[in-house]
Amino acid sequence: MAALCRHIISLFLLLILAALPVSLFNMDKTVAFDVEGMATTIKEFFWGLFSGDAWYYAQGNRTRLILSDLVSYFLSSYLYLIISAIIVIAFSIFLGIFFWKKTNRWVHASLGFLGMIPDFLLVLILQLAVVFINKSVGIKTFKVASSSMNDPAIFLPILTLIIIPAIYLVKSLSEITSEIAGEDYILLAKSKGLGKRSIYFFHVTTNVLPFLTADLHKVLSIMIGNLFIVEYLYNTRGLASFIFVHSNKFGYQYNLVIICLLSLFVLYLSCYYLLRLLLAAAERWLAK
Asked: What does the alpha-carbon distance between residue 153 and residue 194 come to, in Å, rounded to a whole number?
């Protein structure tokens, strides 16, 4: 029930945030806020959902059905996000649990350094590094941007989505593993002569995975935020770029923006519950 209430509140906030650009006006060097205009915009959107007007957006002098373009953009964002999230989880389990003693030293230093670098600057650094390598070696390595949906950049966008959440999750799991490794049942397993690999695989990991599941919200929130920057700067055709590109070309359209934002909400939930399902399956397998 509490989760349902949070989702409803989130949807309500999305409706209001998306209506802000059409409700703020510059009048005589002061900013005016049109509450009535906001309410009218939201009301017209809901009426449009039933009449069908809200499902179309303008491209200059013509209109297109939003869903005809939205599906491909949604699938693109979903693939980038879910692949990156699975890599983050696998990477964090490997380093945060099995090699937690070795990772503690460099994780804190990496977090301190990367925390000072804005996401857009990180993208620029990676792009410049690839260009430099390509020119130095004389061969093409990775695409620095997508030229089209049929020829997308893959490695750099996924790498950018991975770096920050992976370091955060490795740090979190290494701290939890450090605590669990000192518990009595782990010491008892060692005293019985169980091997280190067996102890970490069947005893430590099974007790760390619930903490990883609890951290999924934070990890996906970080990745969704990075997705806006990644799609825009790498020119990958996803939900975030769908909003930016069409708003720049054809003006701000409330129905298009809110449907894309709601699609991002669905994207978040679909990735979250798939990852939870995978982790639950892993916990059940390890508990056998």
From this structure: 46
CA count, 13 A, side-chain hemisphere, 208:
30
The DSSP secondary-structure symbol of 238 reads S
Find out whether 119 and 190 touch, Cβ atoms under 8 Å: no
What's the pLDDT score for residue 118? Answer: 74
Burial 172-210 (b: 16+ CB within 10 A, else e): bbbebbeebbeeeebeebeeeeeeeeebbeebbbbbbbe
What string of H, E and C letters represents the secondary structure of 129-194?
A: HHHHHHHHHCCCCCCCCCCECCECCCHHHHHHHHHHHHHHHHHHHHHHHHHHCCCHHHHHHHHCCC
More confident residue, 231 or 26: 231
Q: What does pLDDT average to over the chain?
A: 80
**Taking the model in full, what pTM does it have?**
0.85
Question: Residues 272, 274, 278, CA angle at the centre, nearest 5°?
Answer: 115
For residues 78 and 239, give the distance between their C-alpha atoms in angstroms, rounded to a whole number.
9
- What's the count of helices (H) and strands (E) in the chain, helices before strands? 12, 4
